[in-house]
Amino acid sequence: MSKKVENEKYLLNNRISLILLSGILISLLYGACTPSTPTTPSGYGELRVMTHDSFSISEGVLEAFVSANNAKVYFVKSGDTGTALNKAILSRNNPLADVFYGVDNTFLSRALDEGIFDPYTSPLLSNIPDDLKLDPQNRVLPVDYGDVCLNYDVTYFQEHNLKAPRSIEDLLKPEYKSLLVVENPATSSPGLSFLLVTIGNFGEEGYLDFWRGLVENDVSVVNDWETAYYTEFSGSSGKGPRPIVVSYNSSPAFEVIYAEKPVEESPTAAVTDDNTCFRQIEFVGILKGAKNKELAKKWIDFMLSTTFQEDMPLQMFVFPVNQDAILSDVFMKYLVVPNITVFVDPEAIANNREKWLKDWTEVVLR
């Protein structure tokens, strides 16, 4: 073979090598600059759930939803109920989430008037009592409830040979002087609920007179439930000076569940006689403009399912609305549910809340 032919063959081989190398480099560069093919399963989606700060769910229960729907769930905790609702209203044109959970019946009318929810009729609504369904258009659906009631220190009343109060009128009697601690309704959800108990019993004309009587009987007012229950109340910490507190009908059961040492009987009891408690109902709804509306519907169905409903009591100290949900034995033993709770129309609450709070402050704190 001539030298010339060898040179041409060498150059040809080099050109082929360069072309192949260039092709490989272009392929690598192209792969680096373009999005990769998703590796997540078919049906994968992201869901954002806006809640108040008290929301809680077991990891295993959340995983059940995630696995069943090939989904990723983000929780947007947004303060207390009122603050969270304000955020949802202010962001209506660009919602922060797909779903909003936590608006209760004290804020319900405002939430509905602002028109931030899309209706959704879950098939699980048939398992929920009608008295908990406060929106006939199903813009929000009930998820849980809890009863705000007077609680008392059982030992104190036994040792003082004194009967526990059976009505809120009893609190005005001289034998209960200096025994009651309540939360400020302007800063506390149970405090607001107890204020509504007094309005439901005495009306707008008489509730302030009742509070004047409580002031004369040396009622103590603190800013929040934690201070009332763990600092001022004698039945929980054993150090507080007051044996009557505004808390929940579930509190006696939790005294047993979370006792440092196992106990057979709860050291506290709840007053659940007719018209002594206010029922808080919490709702969930799909926010208008939700980016993943179909997954939002599945989440609502999940919150109403027994899987989620049976997890709630030990997570958020509230109770299931699904009648098929089963409570633990501790709740069955210690929980007393009132037959007749005080009802105040949600629209009346929305229209008068600020006035009621202002008038209450003038009478009780000034």
Number of domains: 2
User: DSSP strand (E) fraction?
Assistant: 15-25%
Number of helices: 13
- What would you give as the CATH superfamily of the largest domain? Periplasmic binding protein-like II
Runs in which pLDDT lies below 50 for 5 or more consecutive residues are 1-42
N-to-C SSE series? HEHEHEHEEHEHEHEHEEHHHEHH
Helix content: 40-55%
Tally the beta strands: 11
Give the overall pLDDT as a whole number: 87
Distance between the ends: 114 Å
Q: What does the oligomeric state look like here?
A: single chain
CATH topology of the largest domain: D-Maltodextrin-Binding Protein, domain 2
Main beta-sheet annotation: 11 strands, mixed
Task: Give the second-level CATH assignment, the architecture of the largest domain.
Answer: 3-Layer(aba) Sandwich
Q: Roughly how many Å is the radius of gyration? A: 30 Å
At the first level of CATH, the class of the largest domain is Alpha Beta
Structural class per helix/strand content?
A: alpha/beta
Overall outline: globular
Give a written overview of the molecule.
The chain has 366 residues and is of the alpha/beta class. The protein has two domains: 45-146 and 280-334, D-Maltodextrin-Binding Protein, domain 2; 147-278 and 337-364, Periplasmic binding protein-like II (D-Maltodextrin-Binding Protein, domain 2), CATH 3.40.190. The protein is 42% helix and 17% strand. The protein has 13 helices and eleven strands. It has helices spanning 3-33, 59-69, 81-90, 108-113, 154-159, 189-216, 225-232, 251-257, 293-304, 306-309, 312-316, 329-334, 346-364; strands at 45-51, 71-77, 99-104, 117-118, 141-153, 180-183, 220-222, 244-248, 268-271, 278-287, 319-320. Strands 1, 2, 3, 4, 5, 6, 7, 8, 9, 10 and 11 form an eleven-stranded mixed beta sheet that branches. Helix 6 links the parallel strand 6 and strand 7. Helix 6 (189-216) crosses helix 13 (346-364). The longest helix has 31 residues, at 3-33.
